[in-house]
Amino acid sequence: MPAVVDKAAKYSEIVRHAADVFSQTGYHASKIQDIATAAGIGKGTIYEYFRTKEQLFLAVYDAWMSEFEQIIRTRIELAEDALTKVDAIRDSAVEFYQSRAMQAPLLLEFWAHALRTDNPAFLARINQTRDFLKATGTKLTKELVQAGWFREVDERAFAKLESGISDGIFLAWVLDGQSFPLDKAFTFRQSLIGMGLLNDDARAVLTNKLNTKLKRGF
User: Cα separation of 5 and 11, whole Å?
Assistant: First the structure.
């Protein structure tokens, strides 16, 4: 009797090995045969799951972002208040990037490919995550305002800008050869933003703590 193939597990295995190969040689230089060899399967098996190399490339990005989004959702649900949710999002981003430190340039390649390819699925998937982060940030900013921590601010504009700042920190980290601690850079960003948006009462409570972080830098 032939063995039953767990298709979901096989799919995930192919995606995992594809991420490794793409990270090592880049998307364009990588071949399906390279991925099949790394996974210890025949090239034809990969084509049973993915019609093209580009489809597999997108599957890698989708797997990464789906995991990232789920981690944030879970941690926010477990957080006790708005300030704890801020830390949860920050820690999720830092851990996600650090866990893929050796594959970090591949994320930049996804973004570049999305702007070059005529396949709209790439840009759509990138925007799906960006929309999720902006919606999450907007909701959390409203909670911080309502809880009396932040002064009145255009929540949507702030969430959009804050998302861009996070992308910029990640890009600088990659281009600088990961030479500075990512967690401290994100904490510095959070402290800097906090000092600008805290209302008077909240500033009185948190000023000393935030000033220490700002002086320490990263």
Answer: 11
